[in-house]
Model the fold of this input.
Amino acid sequence: MGRSIFITGGASGIGLAAARRFAREGWTVGIGDIDEIGMRRVGEELAAFTVRLDVRDRAEWARALESFAAHAGQIDVLLNNAGIARYGMFEEVSPEESDLQVDINVKGVINGAYAALDYLKATRGRLVNVASVAGIVGSPGLAVYSATKHAVRGLSEALDAEFTRHGIDVACVMPFFVETPILDAGSSGTNRTIRDAIGQSPVYTVTEAADVVWQATHGRDREYIVGKAGRQANFARRFMPNRLRKRMKAAFAS
Done:
């Protein structure tokens, strides 16, 4: 029996690029998303299994994974990829927009871990959670988003240890800026987007991100960073935290 992967947020961005990579490698691919038009397009392109999934809804999770497991025969990997961002200074992002980020980026990942656990236990499979370099270095203008990605990183670290007793490995993928629709995220309190704010920062391709997801599915490490700039940020956070803090604060000094 061939291997299978279920990908949330697979109708676009990193999820779609990962779906293409795994399909090319001969895996059975399942996609859950709220973008039904996008899923239909991807399903036709890749002959992938598709199902509507709002990651905030535990009942939808249960139905989605049950139907995909029946289709594929088993579930070897869950890629918890679905996520959103809202850009703006903290007070420019409404409480409702912050709630939405927490509900999708954190609770959605937790819901996926619960829903997939028995399937992954059966295959001694792998849980791969997509966080962000914003989960290493808190990003001004993305305060709540950064908080959600720190949460995903911490959850991944803890579950990697806990799930050892089930034979399941957990990995966390942390992209730097990647050319996805998330770069065009703004908020109700500002007309600026992430794309407007990043200036000359490098932006990596979804293909590069998908390659790292592939590595995370097969490698032995727990954390995988997408992009040289992300690895540099991680180095600065570990070895030059005060210098990094001063630089970040100087950018917002009045």
Q: What stands out?
A: Residues 95-123 form the longest helix (29 residues).
